[in-house]
Amino acid sequence: MKYEIKGNPDYGDLLVHLDPDDSILVESGAMSRMSPHLTLKARLLGGVIRAVARKFLGGESLFITEYTAPAEGFVALSPTLPGTIGSRQLDGGSFFLTAGSFLACTPGVELRTRFGGLRGFFSGEGAFLVECSGEGIVFFNAYGAILKKEVQGTLTVDTGHVVAWEPGLDYQIRGMGGLKSTMFSGEGLVMAFQGTGSVYVQTRHLGAMAGWLAPFCHG
């Protein structure tokens, strides 16, 4: 299997070239074009309980579509939001994604829904996150461009800008100072990372954009 990512950072497009008998697992609704001979199979990745948890708690679709190539072919994927597509090679380790960031993965990757703390309910990102582990490639998407920030110590990131991070980092979801600062500074809750590893940050904030547009939306 080979892949190409074009259109970053504005409108990322992932083109996956499949050899005979190759497969790829794709977030439901992400396919934009494909070879006509590919076979499709809807899967509850990880079983019913994990799939339902990803849907209602992790912000991902209940079903994931498996595309298989009986002969050489391709499938192209386009995320719902305009922005960047990133990739991560897993060699037995883990990688964490915020809700809605998962796009696709190769069959050797396992997806699990993890509880991220009660404050996540109020963070704009949900209380649950997706842990990717195993061996293979994970593709993820962001709103806007992706900035990879290396952390050796501490880093504070607005919850709405966090896309993914490495397992060497711990984090806490907290407010910006006291209650008054959290409520009236316009910043809300943040993720305070500690340790060593990389954090992937998106340059745009969907919640902030929705809030900006709200006064212009009249029924």
Question: What does this entry look like structurally?
Answer:
This protein is mainly β and 219 residues long. It has a single domain (2-209), classed as Double-stranded beta-helix (4-Layer Sandwich). 11% of the residues lie in helices and 51% in strands. It is built from 3 helices and 15 strands. The chain has helices at residues 48-56, 179-184, 206-213, and strands at 2-6, 13-18, 23-27, 31-34, 39-43, 64-68, 73-77, 85-97, 102-105, 109-115, 128-141, 146-158, 162-165, 169-175, 189-202. The strands form 2 sheets. Strands 3, 5, 6, 8, 9, 10, 11, 12, 13, 14 and 15 form an 11-stranded antiparallel sheet that branches. It has a 4-stranded antiparallel sheet with strand order 1-2-7-4, with no helix packed on it. Strand 1 (2-6) and strand 2 form a beta hairpin. The longest helix is centred in the first third of the chain and has 9 residues, at 48-56. The radius of gyration is 18 Å and the shape is globular. The protein starts with a strand and ends in a 6-residue tail after the last helix.
